[in-house]
Amino acid sequence: MPDETATSLLSRLAARNGLTTALGFCQDNLLRAQAVTDGDPTAISRLAELAGVDPNPLFMNTFPRTSDGAQHLGKERIMSRWMARTRLRVCPACLLRDASTSSLLPDAAMYGRTWWEIVFIQTCPLHSLPLVDLAAEKSTIHDFAASIRPYAPSLNRLVANTEPRDATALESYLIRRVRGQTGEVPLLDEVQAAVANRFCEVLGTVRLYGPSRRSHKLNQAQLRTAGAAGFGMATEGEDAIRIFMSDLVRDGTANGPVNGGALSALGALYAWFSDARRSSDQERLCSMVRDVVSANMPMKADAVLLGATIRERHLHSIRTASIETGVHPKRLRKLLHAGGYIGDDHVGRPDNLVTFPADPCAPFLAELSGTKGLTKVAVYINAPRVQAQLLFQAGYLRPVYPRGESSKRLLAFNVKEVDALMSSLMEGAEGIDHEVEGAFSIPRAAKRVPCGAMDIVRLIQDRRVPWVGRCLNEDGYLSIRIKPDQVRPMVFRGIGISVHQAAQD
User: Fold this and answer.
1) Which residues of the chain fall below pLDDT 70?
2) Which of 13, 9, 21, 2 has its CA nearest to residue 147?
3) Most buried in the list 239, 285, 291, 387, measured by CB within 10 Å?
């Protein structure tokens, strides 16, 4: 019979031969009942021989068990938790139809369908009735005729008392799959039917009830509705699901909790894929989720997401960019806004929720890495702020501009370039551990020449000053010592006597 399990055929064969149990039939014919239940090829072939039927349909409707506890139905791999083999599950209308269209006694005519034993198929599409669970003795649970025999007289009443409902599109799809037919939904056809069902359930849960609702908190009716909704999305194709998940992630990033992540944004979807027991089929779908999350959340390259390494960064936040560059988030926010990398809507939003594409700003962030503002540069080189401002205005301190545009208060200077400037000023300087008569720091020497401090800096860099000292008791810019008498002739060359000489005359 179509979709009949091997154990059902064995049970009906026993009933046709006047035996009350399949076990007695097996003993009379040297056949192990457990071997038939387990889908043993030799036992199935022997059963087909005894029944006078083609063994191939029987092989397609058995559940051979693998070493990891899973069972197979044709090409489908179904874990034990998705099986209903420990309880009697039937469509009473199908059984009545079996009995009414056969000349055999009811218990020999009624047979068990393969898909009745799969828990995620809950409705008969032929009669639009939910499958009914019936009590059965553990000893006869795989003996279909013996288990159904007590219920045969009450099947009409059972049909009348069962509220009809249509099978969902997902249930019809799953029946086609377990029958070995194509499901005609490319995204789901690539994975096992059980995985396809669960994916639809969690996808629909998020679609109908939001990311905060977990599928295991739904009742059976809600979960069935969620599965149908998820299947509807799956029929629209992978691109539609990617758009849906992208919107969820972006909405969660923009409006979710400050510390929210992919789990908060995707809810049941992300939780399911996070399961350590994830199968290879789940991994195929998981790669889609991973792509969406990495494209819409500030995930760094080499970060591990759902068990795999992210190859490249697609998105930055102010926080991740600050960590990467070492620039304070407050100053970085101003620089990014000035450069047009973030919009005006950044105001009032936490650093980790203000995101922007990583590639366009990569060169700018690379240049910003290890920079300091002018005030901190002044402290870093031990120079009065006015002197640091003069170094900037004279071009000795070169700022990093976002896209070539900046303003005075957004200046950022690369520490390596600052170090190079200081090294050039101190190159060849004589280290002194005491003050030398007639030698002064650059600012004080400039007043005594008199000239601008940057004139002295230029002369030092051009190596035109005969002597440069470096006070070992001070650091940085203010440790440099210059003799004004050596600088004055170079500054006022060709314009007559100096002020000092005029005063002496």
Assistant:
1) 253-260, 276-278, 401-410, 494-505
2) 21
3) 285
What's the DSSP call for residue 440?
A: B
Cβ–Cβ under 8 Å, residues 335 and 368: yes
- Are 194 and 120 in contact by the 8 Å Cβ rule? The answer is yes
Residues in the chain: 505
Residues 6+ apart with CB under 8 A from 269: 202, 203, 206, 245, 289
Which residue is listed with tokens 């199908």?
A: 94
Which residues touch 144 (CB under 8 Å, ≥6 apart)? 5, 7, 8, 11, 12, 110, 111, 112
Residue 124, SS3?
strand
Identify the bridge partners of residue 65 per DSSP, sorted by sequence position. Answer: 71
In the 8-state DSSP scheme, what is residue 113? Answer: B
502 vs 7: CA distance, rounded Å: 123
Residue 344 CA to its chain's centroid (Å): 28
Return the ∠ at Cα 116 (arms to 100 and 213), rounded to 5°.
140
What are the residue ranges of helices labelled H in 339-483?
Answer: 358-368, 374-380, 385-393, 415-426, 442-448, 453-461
Contact 61, 5 (CB under 8 A): yes
333-391 per-position pLDDT tens digit? 988 888 889 999 898 888 988 989 999 988 888 888 878 888 999 999 999 999 999 99
Question: What's the half-sphere exposure (Cβ side, CA atoms, 13 Å) at 180?
Answer: 14
Q: How many angstroms separate the CA atoms of 182 and 153, rounded? A: 38
Structure-token pair, residue 130 = 């939910």
Residue 4 per-residue DSSP state: B
Give the separation between CA 208 and CA 230, rounded to whole angstroms: 9
Q: 333 exposed, middle or buried (CB, 10 Å; 0-12, 13-18, 19+)?
A: buried
The pair of structure tokens assigned to 362 is 């990569």
Can you tell me the distance from the alpha carbon of 150 to that of 88, in angstroms, rounded to the nearest whole number? 12
The DSSP output letter for 180 is T
List pLDDT tens digits, range 237-270. Answer: 999 999 999 988 888 765 555 445 787 788 888 8
CA distance 314 to 250: 13
Distance CA 418, CA 409 (A): 18
Q: How far apart are CA 209 and CA 207, in angstroms?
A: 6
163's tokens = 């509220």
H or E segment and range at residue 79: strand 76-79
